[in-house]
Amino acid sequence: MTVLQNIKLAVDAVVFGYTSKEGLSVLLIKRKVAPFEKTWALPGGLVRDHESLEEAVERELKEETGISINYLEQLYTFGQPQRDPRNRVVSVAYYGLVKPDAFEIKANTDASDAAWFNVENLPPLAFDHRDILQQAIKRLQGKIIYEPIGFELLDKRFPFSELEKLYQTVLGRPLDRRNFKKKILKFGFLEETTEKQQLEGAGRPGNLYQFNEKKYFQLKKEGINFEL
Amino acid sequence: MTVLQNIKLAVDAVVFGYTSKEGLSVLLIKRKVAPFEKTWALPGGLVRDHESLEEAVERELKEETGISINYLEQLYTFGQPQRDPRNRVVSVAYYGLVKPDAFEIKANTDASDAAWFNVENLPPLAFDHRDILQQAIKRLQGKIIYEPIGFELLDKRFPFSELEKLYQTVLGRPLDRRNFKKKILKFGFLEETTEKQQLEGAGRPGNLYQFNEKKYFQLKKEGINFEL
DNA sequence: GCAATTCACGTAAATATTACGCAAATAATT
DNA sequence: AATTATTTGCGTAATATTTACGTGAATTGC
């Protein structure tokens, strides 16, 4: 039995950025063509015949937003028959994380039709992109408590309180400063540097920390068990 | 820019069954056509234009194995360009769980070219189905410790030791009988019945337990937190 | 009846989590 | 230049959870 199939395959990307000022943000593009013309949407597009799904995501991100990603993971595949009003399009959604520098650059070059939006304050989105985004946020929340992906969202060196704020914003609940620090340090994938924080206001300046990749990957293999 | 796309979309299913005698098994079919003719493979096939991905999985399962599934969840989408030697085929993999009765039936009707294989003793598999299966097992292990999906693999009523054995087989490590029971019962989604276990050997017969769906779904909404 | 097996229930010790206290270092304020 | 507000660093006591294991009861097989 031969089946004539007329389904298009696309990828979409939910790219998260974070700064302590602006909180958790997501990269969106404004659509130029129908359907949903001039509506904000997740970056993405059709997969080419000879590229992998990851290559497709990275290519589309570069084309549409110019951003370079340092963490990318498959989220879920959205395949409801009516999610695109024209044809059947099944989309493999990915989520990615970028460091603040990439974030800042994009926020300044306002030329393009790509922009960051705080996840608490989103515009109407095309297609089922709202669902995809919601699911990505849930996944991020789930992931961050058992794998320290938070580091992919912070600068190379950061004061401990930055990490704490990040966790609080992503999880949407307060954490005890002292217990959080103890718990995280216990794992041993963080190194204290001798460098001190550049202050932006009052308060005792804290030491900067950095991620010890070697220990992290070792722990990841053994299986980390967070719980915050 | 129009892209002419020539990618086929398929679904594959990793269906797990469990009995305390046989352990954790997986449902496979023997391929009738090239490539990988006469090789064992996961049930699956191309998605039709107007059906959802879940409908496609359920249809293929019915067609190829006659089995009815009571738990189905998307696993991952496998999209490497060369995974099918003929054309580009991207496959959305699902994993499912079936109760022992379905399992038994299939194990007896040896007529078809579908069969159960213990996960410890698998034949060579077609395409990248070995990878898919490995990933499904990992997912099952991850899932079972923070959501009691084990119930989808057991009879309606079961002695407590059955649940314990199931967890030990899936996780591949021993669990303390008494602590396991305390931990599970604490959640309150299990009900003790007055019925006693039918013995198959020596030993004091245990009470049968059953799953309290209402409490389970309530807990699921609140967010369960296992850890065994 | 006696050994072997499995179930039921319990408890002590070790670990982990939670909820805070307080001094030190800095900026802002008076 | 003293005082206040803010934030870091380092604790510790109380509570909760996990882990390890003991003992008696109910059954089958010999």
TrEMBL record, chains A, B:
It comes from the Bacteria. Gene3D superfamilies: Nucleoside Triphosphate Pyrophosphohydrolase (3.90.79.10), Winged helix-like DNA-binding domain superfamily/Winged helix DNA-binding domain (1.10.10.10). One of its GO terms (molecular function) is nucleotidyltransferase activity. PROSITE patterns: NUDIX, NUDIX_BOX. It holds the Pfam family NUDIX. Residues 6-140 form the Nudix hydrolase domain. Keywords: Hydrolase, Nucleotidyltransferase, Transferase. Belongs to the Nudix hydrolase family. This is Bifunctional NMN adenylyltransferase/Nudix hydrolase. It comes from Cesiribacter andamanensis AMV16.
